[in-house]
Write a structure and sequence with these properties.
With 540 residues, the chain is an alpha/beta fold. The protein has 2 domains: 239 residues, no CATH class; 143 residues, Rossmann fold, CATH 3.40.50. It is 28% helix and 13% strand. It contains 17 helices and 16 strands. A 6-stranded mixed beta sheet has the order 9-8-7-10-11-12, sandwiched between helices. Strands 4-3-6-5 form a 4-stranded parallel beta sheet. A two-stranded antiparallel ribbon has the order 1-2. Helix 4 crosses helix 15 and helix 14 crosses helix 15. It is globular. The chain starts with 19 loop residues before the first strand and ends with a helix. The relative contact order is 0.19. Belongs to the glycosyltransferase 37 family. One of its GO terms (molecular function) is galactoside 2-alpha-L-fucosyltransferase activity.
Length: 540
């Protein structure tokens, strides 16, 4: 799959280098594909993204496999050359599981006899058409914003690893162009001619698992014939019946259904780990704390590469007030209180540079340019009190979110990846854009709390997240063992409530899994057709 980071080369305002981004691959998503990276080419003053000296592991400890045509996705094997931090190594069990998943995809994916038989079974809605017992499928529906799509795909990929299903991704919303093929000698894209009109599936679809339970079409308490397919509705509006999907006994029932079609705009991994069986298997896949997303999804920019310290600030504006002085004040209070950015001198104080003046490059990502311009003028008009040289940069400002626009998504992918390359990250509460960046970069960000009143700065303005893993915004509130409503943040020690969404769930740092999201994302790459030189230059 293609990683949601596009190839970008940024020309610093103070330098006229001719560098450009040939291609950038972001590793992010649901499969066993390598991590994304920016491959920058060109000539200039040496400020271009540099390869790290010494040897590098192009297969990322086994997350990737040899056998792909390198020209089809340059960053697949070259991403590791551009990171200062090589990242955490996957467990041997995860590597072996990925190899088994690749083999399963080859035996059962589109173009095989097994897939044709399974498709005929689905088309006829007849269990008497017997397919290969090992070939069961999960179709992941792609929709909503880029961050939602990446997190949903990463979660779907983990689910296929846990349940030995073949993953097929809906190619709509540029999913076929934003990501490289993750599996060698096969495909993970759902081909044309699929017999189910899944675009119309919703919370009211009779074949949804929640509705079939409610209407006793399927039952977990007595033996019943399993249908050929079930629709898994895990959107923000999912009902309690829909969320029984996360219970052990329901997962045992779902194992008997050949086709699952899943729609979610959430990172559902914390919910999966409420299942005891999946919790144990996940612990084997991701034994290192808090790296689930990091390994599932793991560029420098011309002006970021030479800075001694890189700070990323992700500004997500909710509601109808794009230029908010209160949000700007929250950014400055958060970054200065926690030493992310230095305090500024008053106009009368002299600048006393230290013996070695430290350089700080600040990357701001936002639909609006107002915040970066204000930060830039602050450090232009008043020098840093501790003598650092602070520069502020923003690659693009699209003004509003554009659903269905390939160029818009390409820029967003690139900026997510750039944020993941920073040393310190500040994000906005509830933002899937920030979640992907922190998971890819193995970063515990400073999260700016969402204010109850847009004109009042929260106190405190931000707090540091407990782990790099994303937040599951719409988790179940049901204890499957006690058969009662419960606080699911207190059921297993590794799953706790989110810092930015009190009812959400996330994997916590202590005794945690390796970031599921990161691993999944790293199996994806940005396809060469997804972003070209002209697109990259247009971002500046």
């Amino acid at each position: 799959m293609d990683a949601e980071a596009a190839a970008l080369a940024f020309r610093p305002p103070t330098k006229r280098s001719q560098c450009w981004a040939a291609v950038v691959v972001l590793v992010a998503f649901v499969m066993t594909v390598p991590p994304m990276v920016f491959l920058l080419g060109g000539s200039g003053d040496g400020s271009v993204l540099r390869r790290q000296e010494g040897s590098f592991d192009k297969l990322l400890g086994g997350l990737l496999v040899d056998g792909f045509d390198e020209k089809s996705c340059h960053s697949r094997y070259q991403s590791s050359m551009y990171r200062r931090n090589p990242g955490r190594k996957p467990s041997p069990y995860l590597v072996s599981k990925l190899r088994r998943q690749e083999a399963l995809q080859r035996r059962c994916s589109p173009g095989t006899a097994a897939y044709s038989t399974a498709l005929e079974q689905l088309r006829s809605d007849n269990r008497s058409v017997t397919g290969s017992p090992e070939c069961k499928y999960l179709v992941s529906i792609s929709y909503n914003g880029l961050g939602n799509r990446i997190l949903a795909a990463a979660a779907a990929f983990l689910y296929t690893l846990l349940t030995d299903r073949v993953l097929l991704i809906d190619p709509n919303n540029e999913m076929d162009e934003l990501f490289c093929e993750p599996f060698p000698n096969t495909t993970w894209l759902l081909p044309p001619g699929f017999p189910l009109n899944y675009f119309s599936f919703s919370i009211d679809t009779p074949e949804s698992y929640g509705n079939m339970l409610k209407n006793k079409v399927v039952r977990t308490d007595v033996a019943s014939d399993a249908p050929v397919y079930a629709y898994i509705h895990l959107n923000y509006d999912a009902t309690q019946d829909d969320k029984l999907f996360f219970c052990d006994e329901d997962q045992r029932l779902l194992q008997n259904i050949p086709w699952l079609v899943m729609r979610t705009d959430n990172y559902i991994v914390p919910g999966l780990l409420l299942d005891r069986g999946y919790h144990e298997e996940s612990a084997r896949l991701f034994p290192e704390p808090d790296t689930v997303f990091h390994h599932l999804g793991r560029c420098y920019d011309a002006y970021l590469a030479t800075a001694q310290h890189r700070v990323g600030i992700q500004v997500r504006v909710f509601g109808g007030q794009p230029n908010s002085p209160a949000l700007l004040e929250q950014i400055t209070k958060c970054t200065q209180k926690h030493g992310v950015l230095p305090e500024r001198l008053s106009g009368t104080e002299p600048v006393v540079p230290g013996p070695s003046r430290k350089s700080i490059a600040v990357l701001v990502t936002s639909l609006k340019s107002w915040y970066s311009e204000k930060l830039k003028s602050m450090y232009w008009e008043h020098a840093a009190a501790t003598g650092e040289a602070v520069s502020v940069h923003q690659p693009s400002h699209e003004e509003f979110q554009q659903f269905g626009s390939k160029s818009h998504d390409a820029k967003a992918w690139a900026e997510i990846y750039l944020l993941s390359l920073t040393d310190t990250l500040v994000t906005t509460a509830w933002s899937t854009f920030g979640y992907v960046a922190q998971g890819l970069g193995d970063l515990r960000p400073w999260v700016m709390y969402r204010p109850e009143n847009n004109s009042v700065v929260p106190d405190p303005p931000c707090g540091q997240d407990v782990s790099m893993d994303p937040c599951f915004h719409s988790p179940p509130i049901y204890d499957c063992r006690l058969k009662n409503v419960a606080d699911t943040g207190n059921i297993v020690p590794q799953v706790k409530h989110c810092i930015d969404r009190s009812w959400g769930l996330k994997l916590e740092l202590e005794d945690m899994l390796v970031s599921t999201a990161s691993v999944l994302v790293q199996r994806l790459q940005w396809g060469d057709s997804g972003l070209h030189k002209s697109d990259a230059v247009a971002l500046v």
